[in-house]
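Predict structure. Chain length: 93.
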Amino acid sequence: MDTGENLNWGSVSTYDNPSSQAGRSMYEEKFADLPTIDHTIDDQGQPKFVICSWRVNDAKGDMRMEEFYRLCQRILDYRDERKTALSGESKAG
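Prediction complete.
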């Protein structure tokens, strides 16, 4: 579940709930690379904890890793299909 991006360790313990409620997504965007701990299940069905960005943890939600990977793949496949369709339409038009 690693994106290869650096985590912002300086933002640990700086998140403020009242500021988040007031600023909503604009405030939370500042914490996209905040290190968080996510729980998942390993290949043997045992709990596994990983450190990842808040952005990835939030996107994954309660999904198991394989579910998350499948969702990501569907998103990428759809993006590629749209690119192909749009480039085909513009050539035909």
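Summary: Residues 1-61 form one domain.
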